[in-house]
TrEMBL record:
Protein name: HAD superfamily hydrolase (TIGR01549 family)
Cofactor(s) of this protein: Mg(2+)
UniProt GO molecular function: hydrolase activity
Biological source species: Lactobacillus colini
Keyword check for Hydrolase: yes
Transmembrane segments: none
Alphabetized UniProt keyword annotations: Hydrolase, Magnesium, Metal-binding
Length: 216
């Protein structure tokens, strides 16, 4: 059976800018009277962890090291997560593509990096997440892409056949290269396709069905 693993940000939905995310988090921090130095330190540590491609970290793990009150820490993270979830901006063709793939009997999975509490992403966007057989967010499974452990978590959880499984994403480093190293088929969906190691590529999500049917 053919299985499909999707990335989320910039593949199925548009990512918020870093500045917008920082503005949202800063507003909520201030509601809890978190001082500016702590906010600045948190943002810098978060940025450093992203740049260093750390395999396992979350916003909560960073904030817990800066605040003494675990309950306040959890409330802050949950409020930021919910605010971000409510601002999801899905691509215009995402729902129709997922519905089409589901009707054709494909097993559909999601593998996405998340520094926030991803349970709110799901609860606030059930009309989209209902199409997935299962979803794997890094804050839940403990591994972030491009770690091979993140991909193996999906594969081993459902005993997926490597030669019948596709990884579909926009990032060469996080999606395409690690998937190819494991033997998965890949489709890169992005505006700029000039340089990619993926044999199959397209500009629009709606184009992937023909690629999958043709076998890449």
């Amino acid at each position: 059976m053919v299985s499909l693993i999707f990335d989320l940000g910039n593949t199925l939905k548009k990512d918020l800018s870093l500045e917008t995310s920082k503005d949202i988090s800063r507003e909520i921090f201030r509601k809890f009277d978190v001082d500016e130095n702590t906010i600045k330190t948190f943002n810098q540590m978060l940025l450093d962890s992203l740049r260093e491609k750390k395999e396992n970290f979350t916003a909560k793990s960073i904030l817990s090291g800066l605040l003494d009150d675990d309950q306040i820490c959890e409330k802050i993270i949950d409020q930021i997560s919910q605010e971000l979830a409510e601002r999801f901006s899905w691509n215009y063709d995402t729902k129709s593509v997922l519905e089409n793939l589901t009707q054709r009997g494909y097993s559909i999975f999601l593998l996405s990096n998340s520094i926030w509490n991803s349970k709110f992403y799901i609860s606030e966007n059930e009309d989209y997440f209902k199409y997935f057989t299962d979803v794997f967010f890094s804050d839940q499974i403990g591994f972030r892409k491009p770690s091979r452990n993140a991909f193996l978590k999906v594969i081993k959880s459902y005993n997926l056949a490597i030669n019948e499984t596709w990884m579909i994403g926009d990032s060469e480093e996080n999606d395409i290269l690690p998937a190819k190293e494991l033997g998965l088929k890949t489709i890169k969906v992005a505006n700029n396709l000039d340089s990619t190691n993926s044999k199959s590529k397209c500009h629009f999500l709606s184009e992937i069905l023909n690629i999958i049917i043709d076998g890449g």
